[in-house]
Amino acid sequence: METKRNESTELRPEGDRVIDAPLVNINIPEFIKQLKSEDTWKSSDRNAITVFKTNGLRIVLIALRAEAEMPKHNADGIISVQVIEGEIKFTTDAKSLTLLQGEMLALHKGLHHSVKAIKESVIILTLTTTLEE
Known about the structure:
- By secondary structure, the protein is mainly β.
- It has one domain (4-128): Jelly Rolls, CATH 2.60.120.10.
- It is 11% helix and 50% strand.
- The protein is built from 2 helices and 11 strands.
- The chain has a 5-stranded antiparallel sheet with strand order 3-4-11-6-9, covered by helices on one side. The chain has a 4-stranded antiparallel sheet with strand order 5-10-7-8, with no helix packed on it.
């Protein structure tokens, strides 16, 4: 298997990192520090970083300020959301849940949902993707 790296960008000049390999170590506390030290966090209500991306699966770490909202959107694949820090409200057309630190949920493909941070929060979003992504 070929190791894939995420290239640095203007927003993340130090961003060159492994995002796909036979084994990828993901240091969540370090990524949280990075997210909260970047200019995007200082000027916005959220910041995110893809920590793993391969055919069929993506893992994204998302930091949300209190009251930040991800408006209703559609899940293009099966997702899971795990709260690492804080508290969020996760709403579908059928149900609304409050998730606290240490809790997670799973949601099937195609369901509309929204996310609102009740407190400053960090979540891990895991999503299945098509094999071409």
